[in-house]
Amino acid sequence: MADQRKRKVNTNLSVYKPVRPLRSSKKKWYAFQIPDVHRGYHVGLPSHDPMVWDVGMQALAHLAPRLTHVIIYGDFGNWESLSHWAGLRADQPFIEEDVAITIMGIEEINSIVDPHGVKKVFIMGNHEEWSTLLEAKYPILRNEINIVRRLHLHKANGWTVIPNNHFFKLGKSFHTHGNYPGARDAATMVKETGVSVFYAHNHTRTAHYFRNLEGVHTAQALGCWAMIDPPPPYAKAKLPSGWVHGFGLLQVRANGLFQCDYRTIIESSYVELPDGTEIVASYREAQRRLREERDTLLRLRREYSERYYAPEGRVHEIEPLKGTELRTRVQRARVHKQQA
Ligand SMILES: [Fe+2]
Ligand SMILES: [Fe+2]
Question: Which residues contact 335 (CB under 8 A, 6 or more apart)?
Fold first, then answer.
């Protein structure tokens, strides 16, 4: 009994001692993440969303002085002319039309970020990969549809090109288009790769976190800038219900750790940036771009008709491209009512 009385009782029930916080690491890189844009036209309709593009370009211009990188996640062009599905469709665009519309986007990005010395990364998507498949099948086309050459994505112009299914690495984050074999969603992407991956391809926004012995990894899908309604031909008449418009702002620290601030573009026309700046799509600017794109397409079609279909130089009057006007909100809800 006496021994028991002598024994000390531990009255301190809290055994938790906070560890010292990690030393903060300097911000090193700040990247603007552009998901699938799908620039191009099919049966006279844009497959990119002109309002979303305008919001994106305004946001890019606002952030450009602070950016170190702009990363394009592939499917930047829709490349309908190279599509193996296109043979089934009414209107087959020519490669020159796709190149012209896509390069307009590249040049706009160049004009915004080049004065600030921002590094530009172009990750090839599965739609760009169609050109590689054609080149492999018809080597004579190699120089004609070489996307790096046609879009002037050369190193001298400040571009780094990452082939389809390859990864760009920034700190401890990896970046790819997203059609990585076996990775159907964010959960399998992080398990297949074992690292943190940012990707697009599925046009939706998901974030999945996975902790293993090396720490926390994440896979994040970044949405798209593609036209959601009407759905593009490659959606094969499925309703793209999971698609979302947005972009990521990725901050990477000197120790490689990172944080992605994802901004959703609300109703294809509005976004608020982290510093509180509100950006609304400019209807006038979107219309100006659409007019420019339509004029370019018409000029090219005239050229084609002269060169290939009228050997004596006769110019065939061709139908103006329809459907490039911006649609109103009301037209978006396409509900079929019972006819009386
Ligand atoms: Fe895509
Ligand atoms: Fe894709």
Answer: none
Candidates 166, 125, 149; CA nearest to 40 is: 125
Among the bound ligands, the one closest to the CA of 128: 2
Closest CA relative to residue 130, chosen from 175, 168, 176, 179: 179
Beta strands in 204-254 (DSSP E): 205-212, 215-222, 246-253
Centre of ligand 2 to C-alpha 285, Å, is 27
- Domains of the chain, each with CATH number or no CATH: 27-282 (3.60.21)
Closest-lying ligand to the alpha carbon of 129?
2
From the CA of 300, how far away is ligand 2's center (Å)?
27
pTM score, two decimals? 0.86
Q: From the CA of 38, how far away is ligand 1's center (Å)?
A: 7
pLDDT at 210: 95
Nearest ligand atom owner, CA of 234:
1
Residue list, CB under 5 A from ion ligand 2: 75, 125-126, 201
Ligand with an atom nearest the CA of residue 177: 2
Q: Which H or E run contains 291?
A: helix 283-304
Angle at 149 between CA 145 and CA 153, to 5 degrees: 130
The CA distance from 2 to 199, in Å, is 70
CB 55 within 8 A of CB 272: no
Query: Which residues make Cβ contacts (< 8 Å) with residue 313, sequence separation at least 6?
Result: 306
Peptide bond into 230 cis (omega under 30): yes
Contact 126, 74 (CB under 8 A): yes
Low-confidence residues in the chain, pLDDT < 70: 1-12, 86-91, 237, 306-340
Expressed in angstroms and rounded, the spacing between residue 269 Cα and the centre of ligand 2 is 23
Calculate how far, in angstroms, residue 106's C-alpha sits from the geometric centre of ligand 2: 18
β partners of residue 73: none
Query: Facing residues of 262 across strands?
Result: 248
